[in-house]
Structures are given as C-alpha cells and as structure tokens.
Amino acid sequence: MNITNKLQVIINKYYLLIMTIIAVIITWLNYYGHHMLVIYPYYVDFKNIILSGFNPNSGIIGTPTYPMWGYGWLLILTESKLILIMIQFALALFSIWYFFNQIEKLKILSKNIIIYSKGFLIISVPWYVFHSIRWPYSISISLILISFIIFVVEFFYVNPQKTKYKRILLSGILFGIALNFRSDYYLLPVGFTIVFLILKKINRINLKKTLYWLASIYLMLVPWSIYTYSVTSHFLLTSTNSGHVLFLGLGAHPENYWNIKIEDNDPLMNKLIYDKFGEKKSTLVYETNEFLKNEFFDRVKSNPIEYFRKVLFSFKKFVTHGVYPGEFYKQEMLKLQKADKSWIQPGDTWKYEEAYYDFIKRRRGYASLKEKLYCEFSLRVLIEHFSLYMGKLIVLLSILLAPISFIVSIQRNNYFITFILFIIAYQALINTVAFNYQCYTSNIYFPLLINLIFGISIINLFFRKYIKKNNHSLEKVNSL
After folding, report:
1. Cα–Cα distance between 216 and 221 in angstroms, integer?
2. The pLDDT value given to residue 381
3. Among 46, 271, 302, 403, whose CB has the most other CB atoms within 10 angstroms?
4. pLDDT score of 402
5. Among the listed residues 132, 36, 34, the one whose alpha carbon sits nearest the alpha carbon of residue 366
6. 236: phi then psi, degrees, rounded to nearest 5
7. pLDDT recorded at residue 210
C-alpha cells in the first residue's frame, strides 16, 4: 500500500474525528469574531417574547416579526456562547456524517468522489468558520442538508412500492424546523417538488409523496403564522425584512441610478419611510416591509435596464467574492466584548443604541488596524488568507463547472447532483436578484464543494478516455 492509498484510508475512516479536532481549533481562533454580532440581540428579544407568553411588547428593539424566532427558542435552553457553538458543530458534523453514510450505502457517487470530498472538507476552513459563529444559519443549513438527503433517497433511490412515509414526514419536519430559523428557503421545497414531478411521471404515489412532504414542511410554520397574525393581523411564512433587503439590494452597484447605498441606515430609505409614515420607523416591521417591497418593484418596473445591470453586477460578486472567511485576530476582538456583553444582558443593563454605536466605532477602528496586522507574519493572518482564497476558488470553479455537472447528471439520471445544483441555483438567485452577501453564499459552501469535486471527476474521466483513445489509435498506426 503506497502513501496515497494510506492517506485515503485514513481520510475515509477518520475524517469525522479529524474534522472535530479542527472544529475545536477554529472555534478557539474565531471565538471573538464580530460577524453578525449586531443581529444577536434580536434573538434575545424573541426569547423574552416567548417567555412572556408571546407578548410582542416584551421585546426591547421593537421588531416582533424579525428575524425568524428559531434561535430565540434555542436561547431559552442556554445563552452560553460556547454551548451554542458546540450544538451547532454537533449538528453540522452529524449532517456531514449522515450525508456521506447515505451516498456510500446507495453508491450514489463513486468512491473517489467521496474520498476527495471528505479530504477537501477536512481542510475547508470556510466550512468551520461558518459554523463557529453564534447564529441561526448554521442550525438551518444542517437541518436542510439532513432533510435533503432523506428527500433524495426516498423520492429517487427507493422502490416506490417500499416508500417509507415516516421518513418523508421526518424530512419535511426537519426542513420546516429549519425555516423557523431562516425563512429564505421557504420556496425551495416547492421548487424541489416541481422538478421531481418533471423528472418522474405524475402518478398517485408521486403526488402522495409530494403532498406528505410539503404538508409536513409548511405545517411547521403554522405556529409562526399564528404568532405573526396576532402581531400584524396577517398570516406570514417569513420574517419582515424582505423589503429592507430588496430595496438595499438595488444599491449593489456603487454607481446605481437610484443613489441607494448598501447600508442599514441608507439616507434615501430613511427619507422615504419618514415621508410615508411621518416618523422614524424601523424598516423591519410589517408596514415598512410592505412599503419597501412596493418601492423596490416600482423602481424595477420604471428602470428594468438599470436593474438588469444590478443583477449582472451582483452575479459577478457572487461568483468572485467567495464566502465568509472568518476573523482570527482574537486579541483585537476582545475590544468588542463591551458591546457584546451589553447586548446579552437584557433588562436594566440593556442599552441597545449605546452598545450599537460603540460597536460600530470599535469595528471601524479595528478595520484600520486590521490592515496593519495583515503586514505582519502570523498564523492567524495565514489561516484567514487561506480561508478567504479557498472560499473564492471553490465558489468560482464550482459555478464554472455547474453546466457540465448539470448535463452529466441529467444524462446519467444522477438526481442527487441535479438537486445539489438546484440548491446552488436557488441561493444564486437570492444573491443576484435580491442582495449579494458572502454569508448567504456560505450557506451553500458544502453543495458547491460537492459539485466541484463531481465536475472535476467528469473532466478527469473525459481526458482519460481521450488519451486512451489516442493511444489506441497510435498503436494501430504503429502496427501497420
């Protein structure tokens, strides 16, 4: 057994243990990362709203329908940052194990693709940092991954006569729970079922499968809908920030026609809301959300060419800007903890505005200091650079190979890859049509990696056949 084979055996057998060790290291390095820190108090708000018997006035910030409440329920169990991150990683690692377990058992992908996928995932710093942040995205995408595997297996790789409807219900419940943490993917199940019915014939069994699956997903959003009705007099499936995101997304191009800036306190957005409502009002409540959505559509209709330019610009950023790379300057991040602590101690000590502006001031100071730190040689600098450029490379190459993967997946009836590509396309659509953000792309890092390995294996197979064919032709010529 040569060194390469030994390495493959180690990766295949111990990948989960190795990933667990690396997860601990990355958590330590990125523990004081300030990314999405400003959103955390909103989840604390939901914890208080839930514990008060769903009284929206128990929230301090005043956005009772933003964000989704899933993480607020989790905070009832614990507010320990370390325990929350441990829960996130435990679920993330389980989802990865379950993913590989199922595709190996059913031989959906070749052994080489699985080995290389495990190997690249082991060194994928962007994957670890994504799960090392205290936020709902980690929980949501792990649940969706588990749900996705069960969906693909039960809908495509199991004899229809032996369909286990309990597993289909489990898949739907997991997806529905995920939507309570992050609602962006609420239309993905509808897309999945449409594609399924296109690829497979429409019959009683297939319709029954889709009905069970969709019903179990959206029933999990009924409690949220009832709660939002009590607050807004409207049944909602999502949080009330889509208008905010869509409107600011119009400012993606720095020289956009509408003079919109991608910042939460965009002057134009604030002016429009003040003119409409006669007061300074949060953009994340139902009324302003609906108003901003209308403003978004009005601008798109009035200048579709400018919007198309925005879409192209956002797509370019999506393809080239990679994913969230992490923040590894622990000694500097400690300076942000004053703001952090004032946010996680609600009650008399809650001073949101003061903490927010203190945080912004410190972050700006840190940003200038970070440039100086980049000039210094340190392990933290190297890891962050590695994470940054690995993320960019994975996204870029995976998108470039996506057309090849799609064609081959259709030719070979590899429905697993087809739906992996569908997930990638769905997130790409959000990033380009609405708002492009590295963190959004981070959600699909694992699907992008799987697609990349699959695409490379196709190209490798093509060249091997091409060389073999040429060598065979050359042998014939030499024998003449």
Report:
1. 9
2. 76
3. 46
4. 98
5. 34
6. -115, 145
7. 96
- Pull the structure tokens for residue 449: 């990696």
d(CA 33, CA 459): 39
Give me the phi and psi of 115, to 5 degrees please: -60, -50
pLDDT for residue 2 = 74
Phi, psi of 214 (to 5 degrees): -65, -40
pLDDT of residue 477: 47
- Would the pTM count as exceeding 0.85? yes
Residue indicated by tokens 């003040």: 274
Residue 406 neighbours by CB under 8 Å, 6+ apart: 417, 418, 421
Whole-angstrom distance, CA of residue 202 vs CA of residue 19:
42
Sign of the four-CA dihedral 302, 305, 311, 314 = negative
Cβ atoms 310, 260 nearer than 8 A? no
Report how far residue 312's alpha carbon sits from residue 298's, in angstroms, rounded to the nearest whole number.
Answer: 20
Q: What does the block give as tokens for 31?
A: 């523990």
- Helix axes of 165-181 and 136-156: crossing angle, nearest 10 degrees: 160
pLDDT along the chain (480 residues), means of 10: 82 96 93 78 93 94 95 95 96 98 94 96 97 95 98 92 92 98 97 94 92 98 98 97 96 95 92 95 96 98 97 97 84 47 38 53 56 58 89 98 97 95 98 94 98 97 82 56
Rounded Cα–Cα distance for residues 289 and 226 (Å): 19
Tokens 């912004």, located at residue: 360
- DSSP-assigned letter for residue 221: T
Q: In this structure, which amino acid lies at residue 478?
A: N
Q: Which of 47, 69, 87, 72 is nearest to 221 (CA)?
A: 69
Q: How far apart are CA 260 and CA 250, in angstroms?
A: 7
Report the 3 state secondary structure along 29-40.
HCCCCCCCHHHH
Contact 395/436 with Cβ under 8 angstroms?
Answer: no
Q: Name the 3-class secondary structure at 386.
A: helix
CA 176/CA 214 separation, integer angstroms: 9
Structure token digits, residue 174: 């997991």
Residue pair 457/110 in contact (Cβ under 8 Å)? The answer is: yes
| Nearest alpha carbon to residue 354 among 339, 332, 335 | 339
Assigned token pair, 386: 């590695």
